[in-house]
Design a protein that fits this description.
mainly alpha; two-stranded antiparallel sheet; two-stranded antiparallel ribbon; 5 helices
Length: 126
């Protein structure tokens, strides 16, 4: 099934301008266009837009996201294999999780060096 940009924007709760921006910047090189120039989106294209939105929420830069999206390969039937995008994205996210876990551990250790304070006695130690 094919969708218009307005249908995709509504289903993803994403501004049309954002989708156009991603296309203009090369995030969506596989988007089909009508002879009039209007974009037509497949279910697979919508999946990629959802993935871009998820990756943005993790704090990845637009350049990192673009590299991940562009790591998709074209199959012999013209479809896209997004395995590389998802596996590379997962690896990057796992590294971020590991880093954040280490930071939480450091904070836990630092907190253990200070006396606990109750809600009623939250005064600085003099």
């Amino acid at each position: 099934m094919k969708y218009t940009i307005n249908e995709v924007a509504q289903s993803l709760n994403m501004p049309v301008t954002t989708i156009r921006y991603y296309d203009k910047k090369g995030f969506l090189p596989f988007i089909e266009r009508k002879s009039s120039g209007y974009r037509l989106f497949s279910d697979d294209d919508v999946l990629v837009l959802e993935t871009i939105d998820c990756l943005k929420q993790t704090g990845l830069s637009l350049d990192e996201i673009k590299n991940l999206v562009n790591s998709s390969t074209i199959m012999s039937d013209g479809s896209y294999d997004h395995y590389a995008m998802f596996s590379n994205g997962r690896e990057i996210l796992q590294k971020k999780i590991d880093c954040l876990t280490e930071i939480v551990t450091v904070f836990d250790e630092r907190c253990s060096h200070y006396p606990s304070r109750s809600k009623n006695n939250n005064k600085e130690i003099e």
